[in-house]
Amino acid sequence: MSVRRSQDVSAYSEFVSLRSAALFRTAYLVVGDHQLAQDLLQEALIKTYVAWPRVRDVTKAEAYTRRTIVTTAISWRRRRSFHERPAGWLPEPVATDQADALATQDALWTELHSLPARQRAAIVLRYYQDLSEAQTAELMGCSVGTVKSQVSAGLRRLRAGIGPDLKVPSLDDEAVTS
Question: Residues 35, 40, 43, CA angle at the centre, nearest 5°?
Fold first, then answer.
């Protein structure tokens, strides 16, 4: 079997060296892009190599590879990612004023420290440490219901202290109900 395998490899290598240029032209005509044609040809040649032991007539290997190029290109076009193209330019990120973020952080930090210890601990464990209600309850030595009520009361006090104009994304209503 290894003798046949080495014969297969040498026959395949000869096929690739003789017919790659013509197969590349076919791939280019199918996809219309040099880089994609190179990728397509490589994929088709890999598929041909895998099927090489089953190729009965080596003279028909080129037809098999051309057919593989076409079917592979069709399957690529069906993929959603095929139609994505890199942008010619990327928009510059809009520079935000860090002063607003720092002011928000300072206001939140001040209000957080004004909360009673259990409310502050519940909020810190739930939102800053990202623990579940059960994990928070275990760490605080209380029930899950107590954690829920402490978080709810703490968030209500934070919102009242900070004011309605200050938007705090990590403490929005959706996060509280989860």
Answer: 130
Q: Is the dihedral of CA 90, 91, 95, 101 positive or negative?
A: negative
Q: Which domains does the chain have, with CATH numbers?
A: 2-83 (1.10.1740), 98-104+111-177 (1.10.10.10)
For the record, the structure tokens of 90 come out as 């990327």
Asked if residue 87 lies in contact with residue 40, where contact means CB atoms within 8 angstroms, the answer is no
Q: Residue 26 corresponds to which tokens in the numbers above?
A: 């076919």
Burial (0-12, 13-18, 19+ Cβ within 10 Å), 147: buried
**CA-to-CA distance for 125 and 135, rounded, in angstroms?**
9
Q: At what angle do helices 61-78 and 2-31 cross, to 10 degrees?
A: 50
- Whole-model pTM: value is 0.45
Transcribe 40-63 into DSSP letters.
HHHHHHHHHHHHGGG-S-GGGHHH
Q: Residue 84: pLDDT band by 50, 70, 90 thresholds?
A: low
Tokens of 33: 């892009």
Q: Which residues of 114-131 are buried (b: 16+ CB within 10 A; e: fewer)?
A: ebeebbbbbbebbbeeeb
Percent of all residues in the chain with a pLDDT value above 90, rounded to a whole number: 34
Burial class (CB in 10 A: 0-12, 13-18, 19+), 138: middle
